[in-house]
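In pairs, describe these two lines:
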Amino acid sequence: MVKSGSISVLLMTLLIGSGHFLTMERGFVAARTNVTVHCPMPKPCNVYGFTDWYKVGSDCVKYFMTPLNFTEAEFRCRTTAPDAHLVSVHSKKHNDYLLCIVEKFNPKNLRIWLGGFEFLKSGKFFWLDGSFWNFQIWTRGEPNNMYTSSEECVEMNWKEIGRWNDDSCYVKKNYICAFKQNAILKPGSEKMK
């Protein structure tokens, strides 16, 4: 018969020997692990002069850790790259990529402006880049201030990570800019494909 102390030693030996004993991922925080460890980061943008941006769908995107209000962030995007705007989101996959980017660069402050806004208290949301509003992933109970002028701009990661919220446009937040990959000309060539 094996004593209980021997079983404990045997289990400890098996755990240590298997390499699974007390393994903790880097960036571990109580009740939350580092999402970027399991997060598929998008590939770098292959547009000349913008290789520090990431490819998300047909866009190149970049995270900016400079809190600005919605309007200031949009104008900063427009001066950062040709035809750039605050980012629009058209699929869960692209939404997840944006979350991965924010988690990588600023895991302690995930809230960002997206390029969505409510048009003139109509209850209808639009993207600043003029693309169709064909995807949304709101936090439960949001948007909660439609038909008012108190919260007309769209942010991500307010209460539920990866989900959206309507917020007051004057609040300063970090943001992600985006431009179409084919909007930039490579020196000595036609538009990028």
User: Anything to note?
Assistant: The CA atoms of residues 55 and 127 lie 19 Å apart. The chain has two domains: 4-35, 37-183. Residues 4-35 form one domain. The chain is about 20% helix and 20% strand.
